[in-house]
Design goal:
Layout lengths: L1 H21 L12 E7 L14 H9 L7 E6 L5 E4 L5 H12 L11 E3 L5 H4 L15 E5 L1 H9 L3 H6 L3 E5 L22 E6 L10 E6 L4 E5 L11 H6 L4 E5 L21 H7 L1 H6 L4 E4 L11 H9 L3 E2 L5 E3 L1
Parallel strand pairs: 3-4, 4-5, 5-6, 9-10, 10-11, 11-12
Antiparallel strand pairs: 1-2, 1-13, 2-3, 7-8, 8-9
Length: 329
């Protein structure tokens, strides 16, 4: 009898533990959804392991063969099998393979996707475009959507200019809304039929181009993708504006609390710490558990390596992006 009671108690505790985190998982089925968005990568630009890193996090990854690729989302249209890639990262080959696998699509060969969206001109977000060139895939007129300044950067600087000149890619400008709503309103666009996208300028280190977040809408749900931002409070109301009408948001989770890079001046590489974002959005996470999901994790971010820390974040109602997870739109 005692053993039976012990077994029941253990089972009850396990069920409670499962309930504590399962409510933050992405939904399986959503009525009316036409598109599926997949997380194809969740790391910062350099991925894991990270060039120049000799810390335990990278040393262990090299020994074990663990690889985390930069932040990237792929979208599949269930009706037409058309595909969209958000960010062309240095890990583009494995990310495209994962997208094709998840979507059940094959035979794409030299035209791996139907459109690419770029947020800005930092190396983890656009340099994968090189694989569409004649030295590799030899793609033909793949539409690449970016802001006017990002398009100009690609057009005027090699080797990206060669992709344009040889018709490997077709640059299509998208016009973002201003971060503080002081400028002209942005113009929504459809990279593929039925998928509505709004670009919104966000503050970031804009050495070569401006930076945008994307708000992406299917018939059922809306997703926010903002992998890079300096601070949420640079423009009053920016965070609430970005989240307005959004069902799930993938937000900048580069650093957990900033202590993971001792000796580095974080003012040179500003990002909102995850702990700051969670404090700001505590009530939102309580009302919509699992809807705020962290992505673009630096290789030193303890969330990538500490499962108990991941669980504590989930218990607060937030989520950590997992490669392969699906969001119906």
């Amino acid at each position: 009898m005692k053993n039976r009671l012990s077994s029941i108690l253990i089972l009850h505790l396990l069920l409670l533990a499962g309930c504590a985190t399962s409510h933050t998982a992405p939904p399986v089925n959503v009525e009316g959804a036409r598109f599926d968005a997949y997380v194809l990568g969740r790391a910062q630009d350099g991925g894991l392991p990270h060039v120049g890193c000799e810390k335990d996090c990278c040393a262990k990854a090299r020994r074990s063969g663990r690889v985390e690729t930069p932040a990237c989302i792929g979208i599949h249209d269930r009706q037409t099998d058309r595909l969209v890639l958000i960010e062309a990262t240095p890990g583009i080959d494995s990310q495209l393979a994962l997208l094709h696998e998840k979507a059940g699509v094959s035979g794409r060969a030299r035209q791996p996707v139907d459109a690419i969206l770029l947020t800005h001109a930092h190396i983890g977000h656009y340099t994968g475009l090189m694989h569409l060139g004649h030295e590799v895939a030899g793609s033909r007129d793949v539409p690449v959507y970016s802001t006017p300044s990002m398009s100009l950067f690609l057009q005027d600087n090699g080797p990206w200019s060669q992709l344009v000149e040889m018709d490997n890619i077709e640059l299509i400008q998208c016009f973002p809304a201003s971060a503080d709503e002081s400028g002209a309103p942005g113009k929504d666009f459809e990279p593929i039929e039925g998928l509505q996208v709004e670009a919104i300028n966000v503050p970031h280190r804009d050495e070569f181009s401006d930076t945008v977040a994307f708000r992406i809408s299917g018939p059922a749900r809306t997703m926010l993708f903002v992998p890079d931002i300096d601070r949420w409070d640079d423009h009053p109301g920016l965070l609430s504006r970005l989240l307005s009408g959004v069902d799930v948001a993938y937000v900048d989770g580069t650093f957990y609390d900033g202590s993971e890079l001792p000796g580095r001046d974080l003012s040179e590489i500003p990002h909102p710490a995850m702990v700051t974002t969670m404090d700001l959005l505590t009530e939102h996470a309580r009302m919509h558990p699992g809807s705020i999901r962290f992505i673009h994790l630096n290789h030193t971010n303890p969330v990538l390596h500490d499962h108990s820390l991941q669980r504590s974040i989930e218990q607060r109602g937030f989520g950590v992006a997992k490669v392969g997870e699906r969001q119906p739109l």
